[in-house]
Amino acid sequence: xxxxxxxxxxxxxxxxxxxSSALAPHAIEWDQTKHFPVDVLxxxxxxxxxxIYAQEDVGGAGLTRSDAVLIFEEIAKGDTTIAAYISIxxxxxxxxxxxxxxxxxxxxxxxLASMEQLGSYCLTExxxxxxxxxxxxSAVRDGDEYVINGVKQFISGAGSSSVYIVMTRTGGPGPxxxxxxxxxxxxxxxxxxxxxxKMGWNAQPTRQVVFDNVRVPVANLLGEEGxxxxxxxxxxxxxRVNMGACSLGGAQWALDQAVRYLKERKAxxxxxVEQQSLLFTLADMETELQAARGLxxxxxxxxxxNAPDVVSLCAMAKRFATDVSFTAANxxxxxxxxxxxxxxxxxxxxxxxxxxxxxxxxSNEIMRLIVGRALVDDAA
Amino acid sequence: MKIVVLVKQVPDTxxxxxxxxxxxxxxxxxxxxxxxxxxxxxxxxxxSYKDSHKGTEVxxxxxxxxxxxxxxxxxxxxxxxxxxxxxxxxxxxADVGWTAAAIAAALTSTGFDLVIAGxxxxxxxxxxxxxxxxxxLGLAHMTFLxxxxxxxxxxxxERTTGQGxxxxxxxxxAVISITExxxxxxxxxxxxxxxxxxxxxxxxxxxxxxxDPAVAFAGVGRSVVLQATKRPARTAGTKIVDEGNAGVKxxxxxxxxxxx
Lengths: 380, 260
Hints:
Chain A is an alpha+beta fold. Chain A has helices spanning 6-23, 27-33, 38-47, 65-78, 80-99, 102-113, 228-264, 276-305, 310-335, 347-355, 364-379, and strands at residues 119-122, 138-142, 145-156, 163-169, 178-184, 190-192, 206-217, 221-222, 266-267, 270-271. Chain A has eleven helices and ten strands.
């Protein structure tokens, strides 16, 4: 489990080349100017980042979740925000590839896998976040069409995406009344709120998505009516592991910067790295990040093998990795002193970016709920 | 069309590179090994021809230690069809003459219409191997090309000399080397990486190539490093103070350094 295969070494190497040349040199500027680099995402698509674990017959790379967890850590070292968006995009691609019928797969996946088109995942609503199964966006059948009405909140990529997977209520209350429907951009009645002003994640747009009598063919339904919540949760298992890996990559980059800085910077007549208390901080950061890496790889393995405890493992990995990575990035900022607070050093950006990973893809409180319930139920 | 691209694995120029004081050879263990960037551009020339000419076969060929496998696999991941690795303990520390002899034999054994190499390497390099290979094969060579135009039966391009630009062409088969002026290489993509290990990968010893080192290298003098000197510490640069003629002084300085 601990040694990468020769293929994985090569995959990670290719991502490193891409992230260090196409992302890292621009990350600060994109953050400062709130620029969503759609052209660079196309390059990412050429590399294979658009459909990492989608099947090859529709343009995916056909890799495993164990590969993906390594890949996301590496992208995030270049730009955490772009890495996180690529994770969301892959969740959309995976859902269509996995739950779509042959026609839907052929229709949507190839352009998404190449990232010529981008995807957005629409679950959260203004009044339904952690309690996602309380969502109220409705899809009412009218002949061969669904008529969708409602509002989705905090939607990454909204306004730039071509494909929206929308969790809608087609039946009664609760999770069993929810269906997943694909809504293409440009459908009449589909509109977007203003780009939200955020603490971080500035290099990707976050908007409301508004549905006002949006009509789509019934053929755009993914899976069966009433399976949408199941699909949404399945997607999130992988999304959580990816997001943990994105946190880890950002924090690892910040730690690497801190090590370098402490080996150069002198105070009180010696290098900072010779101050034992600072060395201990580095040691704690390294230890916690390695622990997160181990847990993430374990969860990815559980996804690959469809292990019985996969949901709980993904939740543990997400909770732990996003928490310790935020703490490590914040420690890296502190170790840089005043420079850490300057945008030019890139550390404060990573801290701001990683903060939201503790909230999204299921907040870390929900992760504890999943882990705790599984523990109690198993023991019963 | 069968194009063989010569690639050399070198220490990454990104890091500090050092010489082994005992042998005077470059310390290859001291830094990450990568395909020389100019050779990647040579591969890009071949691959972009292949993009527009289906049926083109691209082979990456390298001589070096076991570690070269990684670089050749990257070449396959980028899109080459097969790889040839000349691996033989007798070649350790080979100089340009021995290297050219071994590569020429490997090329003869592999077969080719066109050989493309980088013009020089960023580690221990003399910038002469492509020409020496062509000499051994008895073929036309055009080196230091800054543009390349491949057609079915000939290769053409431009090379810059101190006096001007030469437009050159040669009938195939031929050997060319290219400069950094050619486009940057593509990234290997995931699909390429995963398919790389299914592609033919030939490891050939000198014996496999029909070379008996005792015979083949007899009389081919082999250069030996007598002494290696560390690069001197950087000294202060030249300051030009503008007294109304700074432009002229600057131009003179650049001309003296053959920089313009």
